[in-house]
Design goal:
The protein is an alpha/beta fold. It contains eleven helices and 18 strands. The strands form four sheets. The chain has a nine-stranded mixed beta sheet, with helices on both faces. The longest helix has 18 residues. The termini are far apart. Bound molecules: adenosine-5'-triphosphate (ATP) and magnesium ion. The site of adenosine-5'-triphosphate has 14 residues, from helix 1. Adenosine-5'-triphosphate (ATP) binds next to helix 1.
Length: 390
């Protein structure tokens, strides 16, 4: 959108410069003059990357500068349609005394650039670094100053990258872009479910396929759990990767107290395979089944997907976009789905409906969960207390 300012935020090394350079090159190849300002790397380094990405073209201009006034002057001289500023933390307004990257300087630079976007009717993309917990002050302070905030996420050790709009004044925020980082840059991922499930061993203990919805986009993701129970574990280790630690704690409490399973004193490791991060509460039931699968050393049937939100009473609640999730499961070749009780029917999938975690575990062959009695579970002899633990 001409005159708009977009913040492209992400962790160091995730691929922000690559994405922005590819964007600028595509705009330039369509005949829109694009200006890439690099305040971090030398123009020669950016040019080298542009060569690798096959991005060089006559309408793509590269400049190295960290002075905002010089950048604004360059925008005035070239009148580009798209400007990339890489990054907002390394440019500075000379008369503001603060150091580049400080809150004062980042705000002053962003305000001046936003003004230039309006005056020169160009779209400006500001690249901003954030740390994993989003704690670095600069970019977060900018969110209300800009028109659009795009978060670029992904695990540096995996090729997959997710681009999501967290704020968008000119369009929906429910879109999700999926890219893969390859030698030639970022490429669109068409079959994301296939990519996530590529390394899966069907029928493995502790593994469950969850039909996730991220934004509007359905994705099949493998959730894995490993439960290590041993006697005398007073402060058991809990480790998560790509799933929410708070949700895991809640699920363990439900499995331990409501279903009377011996998980409270066990070490529990959970992850979402493929470097994806699951923000969707509909993953609860799948994760609970993965945990019980590992605990009981029984596999969840390989042709089954699982979704449902779990409440503190052990009840299984409906999930958003149930039909979209299940349609993706059909597309991925799955035959059965363990789902909340009121889920709609879908052609091609046999549904197993459950209204509690206990019913769900029973239905999927992971043993019967007992209702809670008395003052709560005793974990002295898990093998005798629950068939799943034997
Ligand atoms: N020659 C290469 N071949 C393949 N992938 C590469 C190559 N060079 C860099 N990459 C990929 O690009 C990533 C870095 O991309 P990029 O520099 O765009 O990230 P960034 O978010 O801008 O990083 P920074 O925070 O350092 O500015 C690397 O982590 C790597 O995955
Ligand atoms: Mg960069």
């Amino acid at each position: 959108m001409a005159g708009s300012v977009t913040l492209l935020a992400g962790e160091p090394g995730v691929g922000k410069s690559t994405l922005a350079l590819q964007l600028a090159a595509q705009a330039a190849q369509r005949g829109q003059r694009s200006l890439y300002i690099s305040a971090e790397e030398s123009p020669a380094q950016v040019q080298q990357r542009a060569k690798r990405l096959d991005a060089l073209c006559p309408d793509l201009w590269l400049a190295g500068s960290n002075d905002v006034d010089a950048i604004v002057a360059e925008i005035g001289r070239l009148e580009p349609g798209l400007v990339i500023v890489d990054s907002i933390q390394t440019v500075a307004v000379a008369e503001v005394g603060a150091a580049p990257g400080s809150v004062t300087q980042v705000r002053a630079a962003a305000l001046r650039l936003a003004n230039a976007a309006r005056v020169h009717d160009c779209a400006i993309v500001l690249i901003g670094h954030v740390t994993k917990d989003g704690s670095l002050a600069g970019p977060r302070q900018l969110e209300h100053l800009v028109d659009t905030v795009l978060n670029f996420e992904g695990d540096r050790h995996h090729a997959l990258r997710l681009l999501r709009a967290v704020k968008h004044r000119f369009g929906p925020t429910s879109e999700l872009g999926l890219f893969e980082m390859v030698q030639g840059g970022l490429v669109d991922v068409e079959d994301a479910s296939g990519l996530f499930l590529a390394d899966r061993r069907p029928g493995a203990v502790g593994s469950v396929v969850f039909p996730m919805v991220d934004g509007q986009r359905p994705l099949l993701v493998e959730l894995q759990s490993l439960v290590v129970s041993g006697p005398g574990c007073t402060d058991p280790r809990r480790s998560v990767q790509g799933v929410d630690g708070g949700r895991l704690a809640l699920l363990l409490a439900v499995l331990g107290r409501v279903c009377e399973l011996p998980v409270l004193s066990a070490e529990v490791y959970c992850l979402a395979a493929g470097g994806v991060t699951v923000h969707d509460p509909g993953a609860d039931l799948a994760l609970a089944c993965a945990i019980v699968s590992s605990l009981s050393a029984k596999a969840v049937p390989a042709d089954t997907v699982i979704c449902g939100e779990v409440g503190l009473g052990g009840e299984v609640r409906a999930v958003r976009h149930a039909e979209r999730r299940l349609a993706e499961a059909v597309r991925g070749g799955f035959r059965r789905a363990l789902v909340p009780a009121n889920s709609p029917d879908i052609v091609g999938l046999s549904l197993i409906r459950a209204s509690t975690v206990g019913e769900a575990l029973l239905a999927i062959g992971l043993g019967a969960a007992r209702p809670m009695r008395g003052s709560g579970p005793r974990e002295a002899d898990p093998a005798r207390r629950h068939p799943a633990a034997s």
